[in-house]
Design a protein that fits this description.
Layout lengths: L6 E7 L5 H9 L16 E7 L2 E7 L11 H11 L5 E7 L3 H14 L3 E6 L1 H6 L2 E3 L3 H5 L5 E3 L8 H11 L13 H17 L6 H9 L3 H6 L13 H19 E3 L7 H9 L5 H44 L4 H19 L2 H16 L2 H15 L7 H7 L3 H7 L6 H10 L9 H11 L4 H26 L20 H35 E2 L2 E2 L7 H13 L7 H9 L5 H10 L8 H13 L4 H13 L4 H11 L2 H28 L1
Helix pairs in contact: 3-10, 7-8, 12-13, 12-14, 12-20, 13-21, 13-24, 14-21, 16-17, 17-27, 19-20, 19-25, 19-26, 20-26, 21-24, 22-23, 23-24, 26-28, 27-28
Bound molecules: guanosine-5'-diphosphate and magnesium ion.
């Protein structure tokens, strides 16, 4: 049946369980090792030979479950289900067994040969934990369980031995027995499936997935059985697995007294200190934003010179070509001013992500969740929810997606609800612009106050939600912390490059289109092209909103237009302000002075600017985020509520800031 006599082995496991490290230890291949979920996205192969037996190893992206929501899950799921793969090595971080075993339970249901590699045994020992490696395989349907340490390179040969000798042993696929009602349904479905799809692989798995209304399975093996598949039983099935895991962990995991404290523990004494942990975190974040400003500003100069040259060059080129004035204006005042203005913020974005990348890769970010667990628990969230929130400082879209790591639906919705209050990097240009113009003496402090305000509001909201929706407590945090390590330059370079690429492609698409649209809206009115912007469509639209926005200090039609445009992406607030006020190099000294003067003409001062920043921090997130929230929450109602709520909240807060600020 096979082309050769090589055994094909797929490495599957949660993010950060050490798959890549183990894979490298076995194959000697030099793959990147990262400390953050989802870095290994593509499939990686390596060869190894054990006692004459050739094996092909495949390193799959880290996943928490075999559902097919994310790309990682899809890739991994397809790969392990392929006929090509002979045996699955399920790499498990033994120091956080409970979380890791969920995926194991799913893999077992496939019925394919599974070998459990209990990785990080060194950590287990160091922490004074003990795992009963005889009892564990018994409970897991007899699969081989091999304790290893990828980092210390122990147990590797035993693992290969297990692969060589067990790759043909199919698994008992019924490790968990579900409640009677479900088992009956599974049985009926199996019969139906066998009849309709003779020779179907993974019979029990498919039946269970049908009961979960798993999209991919429903499409691949449609069944007409409305009385069996009357609804999704996903929740029950998930719960059963967790209950089972709880039993397993109770039986095999013991705690002894810790033998010694490693370097990591010593550092953690400070960084995750009960009292100091939070101030240290805030201090580190403050430092990050300080650097973002100072170093970012240093680098910015180069971009400005480049942009000025581009603007001048394009203008003279187009003029020499006798291009129509309106086209020159479209290109120069619309496209280049909008997109180029955003590009000059690239150094700030770059530094921000560089700092976040270093914090992530060193292992500190995982600690943040731990440090915040106390606070999070007090406001009714799990510490795990903090990780998506930290991601939110980068971009809300992946942050919302990362809430998938939260098992409870209620927890997840709460987290999604709060994530947009973490200032994403798109909001940074807004803060940079307004704080540099209006608070030139301490722009970093003002910008940092936005990040802090977002956090405070998120915490307050969490408290309020907790009061309204009592009951469902968040539960304790079951996460084990990876060891600290020297950040890896390559990993960070890749991480930063990915973010910068995202930013660039956003500038080239969303912001480009938005800038062009804004230009049109400003240069055309009911009577065609206008010379006076106050007759443009933009002005008309803006004027409608001015009376509403005025009490919040935002009563300029240009501001109204910029805010509407900002719904496409928050940076667009900045790019459209530059197009609106005809400022071509917004992030340069001249540009800022110009903007400041233009705004001052309308009496727009520091208090207005602060209200504006508050509004931008809080109001409806960008279109991509809204779409993601809709997809992840699977509810239009929830999404609409969030959008409206944020809009109102932003308005109220800006109003308070402006009114109180004006009094002072
Ligand atoms: P992956 O996401 O599953 O590919 O995990 P990685 O291989 O990137 O490992 C994540 C982190 O765990 C890295 O910092 C590794 O150095 C560390 N790690 C991996 N295996 C072990 C181990 O056996 N012991 C210890 N102490 N750390 C490990
Ligand atoms: Mg990896």
């Amino acid at each position: 049946m096979k082309k050769d006599d090589k055994i094909r082995v797929a490495f599957v496991g949660n993010p950060n369980c050490g798959k890549t490290t183990l894979f490298n230890a076995l194959t000697g291949a030099n793959l990147k090792v990262a400390n953050w979920p989802g870095v290994t996205v593509e499939r990686k192969e390596g060869q190894v030979s054990y006692k004459g037996q050739k094996m092909i190893l495949v390193d799959l992206p880290g996943i928490y479950s075999l559902t097919s929501y994310s790309i990682e899950e899809k890739v991994s799921r397809r790969c392990v289900m392929e006929e090509e793969v002979d045996v699955i090595v399920n790499v498990v971080d033994a120091s956080s067994l409970e979380r890791n075993l969920y995926l194991t339970m799913q893999l077992l249901e496939l019925g394919k040969p599974v070998i459990l590699a209990l990785n990080m045994m060194d950590v287990v020992r160091e922490r004074g934990m003990e795992i009963d490696t005889h009892r564990l395989p018994e409970i897991l349907g007899g699969i081989p369980v091999v304790p290893v340490s990828a980092r210390k390179r122990t147990g590797l040969n035993v693992l290969l031995h297990a692969v060589k000798h067990h790759y043909e042993e199919n698994q008992c696929e019924k490790v968990i027995t579900y409640p009677k009602e479900l088992e009956e349904k599974i049985c009926l479905l199996e019969t139906l499936l066998k009849k309709k799809y003779p020779g179907i692989p993974y019979l029990r798995w498919t039946a269970i997935k049908l009961l979960e209304s798993d999209e991919e399975t429903v499409n691949e093996y449609p069944l007409q059985a409305p009385d069996i598949l009357d609804r999704s039983y996903e929740k029950e099935i998930i719960n059963c697995k967790y209950n089972y895991i709880e039993e397993v962990v109770k039986e095999v995991l013991f705690y002894k007294h810790s033998k010694k404290e490693g370097k990591t523990d010593a550092v953690d004494k400070v960084l995750t200190h009960r009292v100091w942990g939070v101030p240290v975190f805030l201090g580190i974040m403050a430092l990050v934003f300080f650097l973002t400003f100072t170093i970012g500003d240093l680098l910015k100069g180069f971009f400005e010179v480049g942009l000025d040259a581009l603007l001048a060059g394009t203008t003279s080129l187009l003029e020499n070509m006798h291009t129509a004035d309106w086209l020159i204006s479209l290109v120069v005042d619309g496209a280049i001013a909008g997109v180029g203005g955003i590009l000059t913020f690239l150094p700030n974005i770059f530094i921000l992500f560089l700092a976040l990348g270093i914090l992530e890769d060193s292992g500190y970010m995982s600690r943040v969740a731990y440090v915040m667990d106390g606070i999070m628990g007090k406001v009714g969230l799990s510490g795990k929810a903090f990780l998506p929130m930290v991601l939110g400082f980068g971009c809300t879209v992946p942050a919302v997606m990362a809430t998938r790591t939260l098992e409870k639906e209620e927890d997840r919705k709460r987290t999604i609800f709060l994530t947009p209050f973490m200032s994403c990097s798109a909001r940074l240009p807004i803060y940079v612009m307004f704080s540099s113009i209006f608070f030139p003496d301490y722009p970093a402090v003002v910008a940092f106050s936005m990040y802090a305000l977002g956090l405070v509001i998120a915490i307050l909201l969490a408290l309020i939600i907790g009061k309204i929706k009592k009951g469902d407590s968040a539960g304790t945090l079951l996460m084990e912390l990876p060891e600290y390590k020297m950040p890896n330059a390559r990993t960070i370079a890749i991480y930063v490059w990915e973010k910068v690429k995202d930013y660039l492609s956003k500038a080239g698409t969303t912001i480009f289109i938005a800038s062009i649209i804004i230009w049109f809206v400003l240069n055309f009115g009911i009577h065609g092209m206008v010379t006076d912007v106050s007759e443009s469509f933009g002005a008309m639209l803006g004027h409608v909103l001015v009376p509403v926005l005025a009490p919040a200090g935002l009563g300029l039609w240009q501001v109204a237009v910029a805010l509407i445009a900002g719904l496409s992406a928050k940076e667009v607030v900045v790019s459209s302000m530059s197009v609106l006020f005809g400022i071509t190099n917004i992030n340069s000294v001249a540009g800022m002075t110009g903007m400041s003067a233009a705004l001052a003409k309308y009496g727009f001062g520091p208090v207005n600017a602060y209200a504006m920043m508050v509004f931008c921090l809080l109001y409806t997130p960008c279109a991509a985020t809204v779409a993601t929230i809709r997809k992840e929450s699977n509810s239009w109602k929830f999404t609409a509520f969030m959008v409206l709520f944020q809009l109102i909240l932003a308005y109220v807060c800006a109003l308070v800031v402006y009114q109180v600020g004006s009094l002072l």
